[in-house]
Amino acid sequence: MDAFETFLPFVGTDFNVLILVALGFAVGVLAGFFGMGGGWVITPALYSFGFPMQLAIGTGLGSITAQGALATMKHRKMGNVDYVLGGTVGASMVLGVEGGKRVVNLLVSMGLAGTVVGWIYVPLLLALAAYIARDCLLEARRRAAATGSGDSPKDAGGRRNGRSGKRKLFAIGPSIALSSCGVEVSVGLLVGLGLLVGFLAGLLGTGGGFALVPAFVYLIGTPTLVAVGTSLLCVLISGAYGAFAYGRQGSVEIVAVLWMLAGAVVGTQLGAAATRYVRGYGIRLLYAVMLLLASSGLVMKQFGVLPNAEGESRLAPLVILGGAALMCVVILGRMVGSLVRERRGARGD
Amino acid sequence: MPDPAQWLFAADLGRTEAGAGFSRFLLEAYRGHPTLYALASVIALLAAGTLLGWLTEVALVLLGYETQNADHVE
After folding, report:
1. Domain region containing B60
2. CB A120 within 8 A of CB A204
3. Is A229 on the interface with B (CB under 8 A)?
4. Domain assignment of residue B27, yes or no
5. Nearby residues of A117 by Cβ (< 8 Å), 6 or more positions away
6. Which residue ranges make up each domain of chain A?
7. Would residue B16 count as lying in a domain?
8. For residue range A178-190, what is the model confidence (pLDDT) as tens digits?
9. Gap between the Cα atoms of A176 and A174, Å rounded
10. What is the sign, positive or negative, of the torsion defined by CA atoms of A144, A148, A152, A156?
11. Inside any domain, residue B5
Protein backbone atom coordinates (compact mmCIF):
# COMPACT_ATOMS: atom_id res chain seq x y z
CA MET A 1 0.00 0.00 0.00
CA ASP A 2 3.04 2.28 0.37
CA ALA A 3 2.93 3.21 -3.29
CA PHE A 4 -0.45 4.81 -2.70
CA GLU A 5 0.61 7.07 0.16
CA THR A 6 0.75 10.80 -0.41
CA PHE A 7 2.01 13.47 1.92
CA LEU A 8 -0.60 15.99 3.05
CA PRO A 9 1.41 19.12 3.92
CA PHE A 10 -1.15 20.90 6.07
CA VAL A 11 -2.30 17.85 8.03
CA GLY A 12 1.39 16.96 8.24
CA THR A 13 1.14 13.26 7.60
CA ASP A 14 1.00 10.67 4.82
CA PHE A 15 -2.39 9.46 3.73
CA ASN A 16 -3.64 6.70 1.48
CA VAL A 17 -4.65 8.15 -1.90
CA LEU A 18 -7.04 5.27 -2.59
CA ILE A 19 -9.09 6.24 0.45
CA LEU A 20 -9.35 9.82 -0.80
CA VAL A 21 -10.30 8.74 -4.33
CA ALA A 22 -12.85 6.27 -2.93
CA LEU A 23 -14.36 8.94 -0.69
CA GLY A 24 -14.58 11.36 -3.62
CA PHE A 25 -16.08 8.65 -5.82
CA ALA A 26 -18.71 7.77 -3.20
CA VAL A 27 -19.64 11.41 -2.68
CA GLY A 28 -19.78 11.91 -6.46
CA VAL A 29 -22.14 8.95 -6.93
CA LEU A 30 -24.41 10.27 -4.18
CA ALA A 31 -24.34 13.83 -5.52
CA GLY A 32 -24.96 12.65 -9.09
CA PHE A 33 -27.78 10.36 -8.05
CA PHE A 34 -29.54 12.40 -5.36
CA GLY A 35 -28.41 15.92 -6.26
CA MET A 36 -27.11 16.48 -2.74
CA GLY A 37 -24.94 14.88 -0.11
CA GLY A 38 -21.35 16.08 -0.52
CA GLY A 39 -20.41 18.00 2.59
CA TRP A 40 -22.47 15.86 4.92
CA VAL A 41 -20.24 12.90 4.16
CA ILE A 42 -16.85 14.52 3.48
CA THR A 43 -16.33 16.50 6.68
CA PRO A 44 -17.38 13.73 9.12
CA ALA A 45 -15.39 11.17 7.10
CA LEU A 46 -12.19 13.27 7.09
CA TYR A 47 -12.62 14.01 10.80
CA SER A 48 -13.05 10.32 11.56
CA PHE A 49 -9.91 9.57 9.52
CA GLY A 50 -7.95 11.79 11.90
CA PHE A 51 -7.97 15.21 10.21
CA PRO A 52 -8.19 18.02 12.79
CA MET A 53 -11.77 19.37 12.67
CA GLN A 54 -10.69 22.76 11.28
CA LEU A 55 -8.90 21.04 8.38
CA ALA A 56 -11.80 18.65 7.80
CA ILE A 57 -14.18 21.63 7.50
CA GLY A 58 -11.85 23.66 5.25
CA THR A 59 -11.10 20.67 3.03
CA GLY A 60 -14.82 19.86 2.83
CA LEU A 61 -15.55 23.41 1.66
CA GLY A 62 -12.72 23.19 -0.89
CA SER A 63 -14.15 19.96 -2.24
CA ILE A 64 -17.65 21.46 -2.49
CA THR A 65 -16.22 24.41 -4.44
CA ALA A 66 -14.47 22.20 -6.98
CA GLN A 67 -17.47 19.93 -7.48
CA GLY A 68 -19.97 22.80 -7.43
CA ALA A 69 -18.35 24.60 -10.37
CA LEU A 70 -19.31 21.93 -12.88
CA ALA A 71 -22.80 21.32 -11.49
CA THR A 72 -23.64 25.05 -11.53
CA MET A 73 -22.44 25.39 -15.10
CA LYS A 74 -24.66 22.51 -16.17
CA HIS A 75 -27.71 24.09 -14.57
CA ARG A 76 -26.87 27.50 -16.01
CA LYS A 77 -26.90 26.00 -19.50
CA MET A 78 -30.34 24.54 -18.84
CA GLY A 79 -31.67 27.87 -17.54
CA ASN A 80 -32.18 26.54 -14.02
CA VAL A 81 -30.44 29.39 -12.19
CA ASP A 82 -32.28 32.43 -10.79
CA TYR A 83 -29.41 34.93 -10.48
CA VAL A 84 -31.31 37.49 -8.39
CA LEU A 85 -32.30 34.87 -5.83
CA GLY A 86 -28.93 33.08 -5.95
CA GLY A 87 -26.92 36.31 -5.78
CA THR A 88 -28.88 37.68 -2.81
CA VAL A 89 -28.84 34.46 -0.77
CA GLY A 90 -25.25 33.61 -1.83
CA ALA A 91 -23.93 37.03 -0.77
CA SER A 92 -25.65 36.66 2.61
CA MET A 93 -24.21 33.19 2.96
CA VAL A 94 -20.71 34.64 2.65
CA LEU A 95 -21.33 36.66 5.83
CA GLY A 96 -22.76 33.56 7.50
CA VAL A 97 -19.73 31.45 6.51
CA GLU A 98 -17.43 34.07 8.02
CA GLY A 99 -19.45 33.93 11.26
CA GLY A 100 -19.29 30.12 11.31
CA LYS A 101 -15.53 30.18 10.68
CA ARG A 102 -15.00 32.59 13.57
CA VAL A 103 -16.94 30.31 15.89
CA VAL A 104 -14.78 27.37 14.75
CA ASN A 105 -11.62 29.44 15.39
CA LEU A 106 -12.90 30.28 18.86
CA LEU A 107 -13.58 26.60 19.53
CA VAL A 108 -10.11 25.70 18.25
CA SER A 109 -8.53 28.20 20.64
CA MET A 110 -10.48 26.53 23.47
CA GLY A 111 -9.46 23.06 22.23
CA LEU A 112 -13.11 22.10 21.70
CA ALA A 113 -13.58 22.26 17.91
CA GLY A 114 -13.65 18.50 17.31
CA THR A 115 -15.90 17.75 20.25
CA VAL A 116 -18.43 20.56 19.74
CA VAL A 117 -18.70 20.42 15.92
CA GLY A 118 -18.72 16.62 16.04
CA TRP A 119 -21.65 16.63 18.46
CA ILE A 120 -23.52 19.28 16.43
CA TYR A 121 -23.23 16.96 13.42
CA VAL A 122 -24.88 14.03 15.18
CA PRO A 123 -28.43 15.46 15.62
CA LEU A 124 -28.25 17.28 12.29
CA LEU A 125 -27.43 14.07 10.43
CA LEU A 126 -30.25 12.33 12.29
CA ALA A 127 -32.65 15.17 11.41
CA LEU A 128 -31.62 15.03 7.76
CA ALA A 129 -32.14 11.25 7.74
CA ALA A 130 -35.59 11.71 9.28
CA TYR A 131 -36.44 14.44 6.75
CA ILE A 132 -35.45 12.24 3.80
CA ALA A 133 -37.34 9.24 5.18
CA ARG A 134 -40.46 11.36 5.79
CA ASP A 135 -40.25 13.02 2.37
CA CYS A 136 -39.86 9.61 0.77
CA LEU A 137 -42.87 8.13 2.57
CA LEU A 138 -45.05 11.19 1.81
CA GLU A 139 -44.10 11.01 -1.86
CA ALA A 140 -44.95 7.30 -1.95
CA ARG A 141 -48.36 8.04 -0.42
CA ARG A 142 -48.96 10.93 -2.81
CA ARG A 143 -48.11 8.77 -5.79
CA ALA A 144 -50.37 6.00 -4.53
CA ALA A 145 -53.21 8.53 -4.10
CA ALA A 146 -52.55 10.03 -7.54
CA THR A 147 -52.61 6.57 -9.12
CA GLY A 148 -55.90 5.86 -7.39
CA SER A 149 -57.47 9.10 -8.62
CA GLY A 150 -56.15 8.68 -12.16
CA ASP A 151 -53.77 11.68 -11.98
CA SER A 152 -50.18 11.26 -13.01
CA PRO A 153 -47.81 11.58 -10.04
CA LYS A 154 -46.09 14.41 -11.87
CA ASP A 155 -49.35 16.36 -12.00
CA ALA A 156 -49.93 15.78 -8.34
CA GLY A 157 -46.45 17.05 -7.50
CA GLY A 158 -46.80 19.94 -9.90
CA ARG A 159 -49.95 21.23 -8.25
CA ARG A 160 -48.28 21.13 -4.87
CA ASN A 161 -45.49 23.49 -5.92
CA GLY A 162 -47.25 25.30 -8.73
CA ARG A 163 -47.87 28.93 -7.82
CA SER A 164 -48.92 31.30 -10.50
CA GLY A 165 -49.51 35.03 -10.72
CA LYS A 166 -47.41 37.81 -9.25
CA ARG A 167 -47.77 37.97 -5.50
CA LYS A 168 -45.87 39.24 -2.51
CA LEU A 169 -44.21 37.04 0.05
CA PHE A 170 -43.40 38.21 3.57
CA ALA A 171 -43.84 41.83 2.45
CA ILE A 172 -41.79 43.38 5.24
CA GLY A 173 -39.26 46.02 4.23
CA PRO A 174 -37.80 46.18 0.71
CA SER A 175 -38.63 43.34 -1.65
CA ILE A 176 -37.25 42.02 -4.94
CA ALA A 177 -39.03 40.40 -7.87
CA LEU A 178 -38.06 36.84 -8.78
CA SER A 179 -38.73 36.05 -12.41
CA SER A 180 -38.37 32.29 -11.93
CA CYS A 181 -41.54 32.01 -9.85
CA GLY A 182 -43.29 35.34 -10.40
CA VAL A 183 -43.20 36.55 -6.81
CA GLU A 184 -41.89 39.55 -4.94
CA VAL A 185 -40.08 38.42 -1.84
CA SER A 186 -38.75 40.32 1.14
CA VAL A 187 -35.01 40.95 0.95
CA GLY A 188 -34.88 40.45 4.72
CA LEU A 189 -36.20 36.91 4.37
CA LEU A 190 -33.57 36.00 1.77
CA VAL A 191 -30.75 37.62 3.77
CA GLY A 192 -31.90 35.85 6.94
CA LEU A 193 -32.02 32.51 5.12
CA GLY A 194 -28.55 33.09 3.66
CA LEU A 195 -27.05 34.09 7.01
CA LEU A 196 -28.44 31.03 8.77
CA VAL A 197 -27.47 28.49 6.12
CA GLY A 198 -24.08 30.18 5.58
CA PHE A 199 -23.36 30.03 9.30
CA LEU A 200 -24.03 26.28 9.29
CA ALA A 201 -21.87 25.88 6.17
CA GLY A 202 -18.95 27.73 7.79
CA LEU A 203 -19.35 25.85 11.03
CA LEU A 204 -19.82 22.36 9.59
CA GLY A 205 -18.09 22.49 6.21
CA THR A 206 -21.26 21.63 4.29
CA GLY A 207 -22.71 23.22 1.18
CA GLY A 208 -26.16 24.00 2.54
CA GLY A 209 -28.19 22.63 -0.39
CA PHE A 210 -30.02 20.38 2.09
CA ALA A 211 -31.68 23.51 3.58
CA LEU A 212 -31.74 25.81 0.55
CA VAL A 213 -33.64 23.54 -1.86
CA PRO A 214 -36.61 22.90 0.49
CA ALA A 215 -36.61 26.58 1.54
CA PHE A 216 -36.73 27.76 -2.09
CA VAL A 217 -39.43 25.25 -3.03
CA TYR A 218 -41.71 25.39 0.01
CA LEU A 219 -41.11 28.93 1.26
CA ILE A 220 -40.81 30.84 -1.99
CA GLY A 221 -42.48 28.50 -4.48
CA THR A 222 -39.54 28.19 -6.85
CA PRO A 223 -39.83 25.28 -9.35
CA THR A 224 -37.78 22.33 -8.09
CA LEU A 225 -35.15 22.34 -10.84
CA VAL A 226 -34.64 26.10 -10.49
CA ALA A 227 -34.35 25.59 -6.72
CA VAL A 228 -31.60 22.99 -7.27
CA GLY A 229 -29.73 25.12 -9.85
CA THR A 230 -30.01 28.27 -7.75
CA SER A 231 -28.97 26.51 -4.55
CA LEU A 232 -25.88 25.21 -6.40
CA LEU A 233 -24.96 28.81 -7.28
CA CYS A 234 -25.36 29.80 -3.61
CA VAL A 235 -23.28 26.81 -2.51
CA LEU A 236 -20.61 27.68 -5.06
CA ILE A 237 -20.40 31.30 -3.84
CA SER A 238 -20.32 30.39 -0.15
CA GLY A 239 -18.05 27.35 -0.70
CA ALA A 240 -15.54 29.45 -2.65
CA TYR A 241 -15.50 32.08 0.07
CA GLY A 242 -15.24 29.37 2.75
CA ALA A 243 -12.33 27.71 0.93
CA PHE A 244 -10.62 31.10 0.66
CA ALA A 245 -11.21 32.03 4.32
CA TYR A 246 -10.10 28.63 5.66
CA GLY A 247 -7.28 28.51 3.09
CA ARG A 248 -5.86 31.80 4.41
CA GLN A 249 -5.31 30.14 7.77
CA GLY A 250 -3.84 26.97 6.24
CA SER A 251 -6.93 24.83 6.82
CA VAL A 252 -7.60 23.55 3.30
CA GLU A 253 -5.70 20.41 2.32
CA ILE A 254 -5.65 21.05 -1.40
CA VAL A 255 -3.81 17.79 -2.20
CA ALA A 256 -6.64 15.83 -0.58
CA VAL A 257 -9.25 17.90 -2.43
CA LEU A 258 -7.63 17.18 -5.79
CA TRP A 259 -7.49 13.42 -5.13
CA MET A 260 -11.11 13.42 -4.00
CA LEU A 261 -12.05 15.44 -7.08
CA ALA A 262 -10.53 12.78 -9.34
CA GLY A 263 -12.87 10.18 -7.84
CA ALA A 264 -15.84 12.56 -7.69
CA VAL A 265 -15.78 13.40 -11.40
CA VAL A 266 -16.23 9.75 -12.37
CA GLY A 267 -18.65 9.08 -9.51
CA THR A 268 -20.88 12.02 -10.45
CA GLN A 269 -21.25 10.83 -14.03
CA LEU A 270 -22.03 7.27 -12.91
CA GLY A 271 -24.49 8.52 -10.29
CA ALA A 272 -26.26 10.68 -12.88
CA ALA A 273 -26.37 7.78 -15.35
CA ALA A 274 -27.83 5.53 -12.63
CA THR A 275 -30.89 7.79 -12.31
CA ARG A 276 -32.07 6.38 -15.63
CA TYR A 277 -32.02 2.79 -14.40
CA VAL A 278 -32.59 2.88 -10.66
CA ARG A 279 -36.03 3.95 -9.48
CA GLY A 280 -38.08 3.60 -6.35
CA TYR A 281 -38.14 4.97 -2.85
CA GLY A 282 -36.20 2.17 -1.22
CA ILE A 283 -33.00 3.70 -2.50
CA ARG A 284 -33.79 7.03 -0.87
CA LEU A 285 -34.57 5.30 2.39
CA LEU A 286 -31.17 3.68 2.09
CA TYR A 287 -29.68 7.15 1.87
CA ALA A 288 -31.33 7.94 5.19
CA VAL A 289 -29.74 4.77 6.58
CA MET A 290 -26.34 5.94 5.32
CA LEU A 291 -26.79 9.22 7.18
CA LEU A 292 -27.70 7.25 10.30
CA LEU A 293 -24.47 5.29 9.90
CA ALA A 294 -22.48 8.53 9.50
CA SER A 295 -24.09 9.84 12.66
CA SER A 296 -23.28 6.61 14.51
CA GLY A 297 -19.70 6.80 13.24
CA LEU A 298 -19.33 10.26 14.73
CA VAL A 299 -20.71 9.08 18.06
CA MET A 300 -18.13 6.24 17.99
CA LYS A 301 -15.41 8.77 17.19
CA GLN A 302 -16.47 11.00 20.10
CA PHE A 303 -16.53 8.12 22.55
CA GLY A 304 -13.39 6.52 21.11
CA VAL A 305 -15.07 3.14 20.53
CA LEU A 306 -12.44 0.40 20.00
CA PRO A 307 -9.57 2.84 20.49
CA ASN A 308 -6.12 2.52 18.94
CA ALA A 309 -2.89 3.50 20.66
CA GLU A 310 -3.69 7.22 20.21
CA GLY A 311 -7.18 6.80 21.70
CA GLU A 312 -8.91 7.32 18.32
CA SER A 313 -11.81 5.05 17.41
CA ARG A 314 -10.85 2.38 14.88
CA LEU A 315 -14.45 1.70 14.04
CA ALA A 316 -15.67 5.23 13.21
CA PRO A 317 -13.95 5.64 9.79
CA LEU A 318 -14.99 2.13 8.76
CA VAL A 319 -18.64 2.79 9.64
CA ILE A 320 -18.78 6.15 7.82
CA LEU A 321 -16.92 5.08 4.69
CA GLY A 322 -18.62 1.68 4.79
CA GLY A 323 -22.07 3.33 4.77
CA ALA A 324 -21.17 5.46 1.74
CA ALA A 325 -19.59 2.44 -0.01
CA LEU A 326 -22.68 0.31 0.65
CA MET A 327 -24.88 3.01 -0.86
CA CYS A 328 -22.70 3.18 -3.99
CA VAL A 329 -22.61 -0.61 -4.37
CA VAL A 330 -26.42 -0.76 -4.21
CA ILE A 331 -26.92 2.09 -6.71
CA LEU A 332 -24.29 0.90 -9.18
CA GLY A 333 -25.23 -2.78 -8.70
CA ARG A 334 -28.86 -2.04 -9.53
CA MET A 335 -27.79 0.04 -12.52
CA VAL A 336 -25.65 -2.82 -13.87
CA GLY A 337 -28.49 -5.28 -13.22
CA SER A 338 -30.94 -3.07 -15.17
CA LEU A 339 -28.46 -2.69 -18.02
CA VAL A 340 -27.96 -6.46 -18.23
CA ARG A 341 -31.73 -7.05 -18.24
CA GLU A 342 -32.18 -4.36 -20.88
CA ARG A 343 -29.57 -5.98 -23.15
CA ARG A 344 -31.04 -9.44 -22.66
CA GLY A 345 -34.47 -8.03 -23.51
CA ALA A 346 -33.08 -6.40 -26.65
CA ARG A 347 -31.52 -9.70 -27.73
CA GLY A 348 -34.81 -11.50 -27.07
CA ASP A 349 -36.61 -9.09 -29.42
CA MET B 1 -9.14 -6.32 13.82
CA PRO B 2 -6.97 -4.14 11.57
CA ASP B 3 -6.15 -0.68 12.83
CA PRO B 4 -7.35 1.85 10.20
CA ALA B 5 -5.22 4.59 11.73
CA GLN B 6 -2.08 2.50 11.16
CA TRP B 7 -3.32 1.49 7.74
CA LEU B 8 -4.22 5.03 6.67
CA PHE B 9 -1.36 6.94 8.22
CA ALA B 10 2.13 5.71 7.60
CA ALA B 11 4.52 8.61 8.06
CA ASP B 12 7.91 8.31 6.36
CA LEU B 13 6.66 5.72 3.89
CA GLY B 14 6.25 6.00 0.16
CA ARG B 15 7.02 9.68 -0.32
CA THR B 16 8.01 10.34 -3.88
CA GLU B 17 10.31 13.19 -4.89
CA ALA B 18 7.62 14.83 -7.00
CA GLY B 19 5.02 14.54 -4.26
CA ALA B 20 7.37 15.89 -1.60
CA GLY B 21 8.39 18.74 -3.91
CA PHE B 22 4.77 19.69 -4.55
CA SER B 23 4.00 19.61 -0.82
CA ARG B 24 7.04 21.80 -0.07
CA PHE B 25 5.95 24.21 -2.80
CA LEU B 26 2.44 24.48 -1.30
CA LEU B 27 3.74 25.06 2.21
CA GLU B 28 6.26 27.67 1.12
CA ALA B 29 3.66 29.47 -1.00
CA TYR B 30 1.27 29.52 1.94
CA ARG B 31 3.90 30.74 4.40
CA GLY B 32 5.04 33.47 1.99
CA HIS B 33 1.66 34.89 0.94
CA PRO B 34 -1.30 33.25 2.71
CA THR B 35 -3.97 35.46 1.11
CA LEU B 36 -2.58 35.07 -2.39
CA TYR B 37 -2.17 31.33 -1.79
CA ALA B 38 -5.79 31.01 -0.65
CA LEU B 39 -7.05 32.98 -3.65
CA ALA B 40 -4.95 30.93 -6.07
CA SER B 41 -6.20 27.72 -4.41
CA VAL B 42 -9.85 28.67 -4.91
CA ILE B 43 -9.24 29.60 -8.56
CA ALA B 44 -7.32 26.34 -9.08
CA LEU B 45 -10.14 24.32 -7.50
CA LEU B 46 -12.80 26.00 -9.64
CA ALA B 47 -10.70 25.47 -12.76
CA ALA B 48 -9.88 21.85 -11.88
CA GLY B 49 -13.54 21.02 -11.17
CA THR B 50 -14.73 22.59 -14.40
CA LEU B 51 -11.96 21.14 -16.54
CA LEU B 52 -12.19 17.59 -15.17
CA GLY B 53 -15.96 17.59 -15.47
CA TRP B 54 -15.81 18.90 -19.01
CA LEU B 55 -13.17 16.33 -19.99
CA THR B 56 -15.30 13.52 -18.57
CA GLU B 57 -18.30 14.71 -20.54
CA VAL B 58 -16.27 14.90 -23.74
CA ALA B 59 -14.93 11.40 -23.08
CA LEU B 60 -18.45 10.06 -22.53
CA VAL B 61 -19.69 11.67 -25.75
CA LEU B 62 -16.71 10.25 -27.66
CA LEU B 63 -17.45 6.82 -26.21
CA GLY B 64 -21.02 7.14 -27.44
CA TYR B 65 -22.75 7.65 -24.11
CA GLU B 66 -25.30 10.40 -23.87
CA THR B 67 -24.66 12.58 -20.84
CA GLN B 68 -27.42 13.53 -18.47
CA ASN B 69 -28.07 16.20 -15.89
CA ALA B 70 -25.84 15.36 -12.93
CA ASP B 71 -28.20 16.88 -10.43
CA HIS B 72 -31.19 14.69 -10.70
CA VAL B 73 -34.08 15.50 -8.45
CA GLU B 74 -37.16 13.36 -8.25
Report:
1. 34-68
2. yes
3. yes
4. no
5. A47, A53, A57, A104, A107, A203, A204
6. 2-348
7. no
8. 877 778 888 898 9
9. 7
10. negative
11. no
Q: Do A248 and B35 touch (CB under 8 A)?
A: yes
Residue among A5, A50, A213 whose CB faces B14 most closely: A5
pTM above 0.95, yes or no: no
Taking the Cβ of residue A314 and every Cβ of chain B, the question of whether any pair is shorter than 8 Å is answered with yes
The Cα A256–Cα B41 span in angstroms is 13
ipTM above 0.85, yes or no: no
Sign of the Cα pseudo-torsion (A54, A228, A288, A159, in order): positive
- Is the Cα dihedral B41, A257, A289, A329 positive or negative? positive
Which residue from A124, A85, A127 is spatially nearest to A212, judged by alpha carbons?
Answer: A85
pLDDT single digits (tens) A125-184: 899 889 888 888 888 888 888 876 655 444 444 444 444 445 656 666 788 888 777 788
Torsions phi, psi for A163 (to 5 deg): -135, 120
Do residues A256 and B8 lie in contact, with contact meaning Cβ atoms separated by under 8 Å?
A: no
In a domain, B11, yes or no: no
Residue of B nearest to A272 (CA): B70
Number of domains in chain B: 1
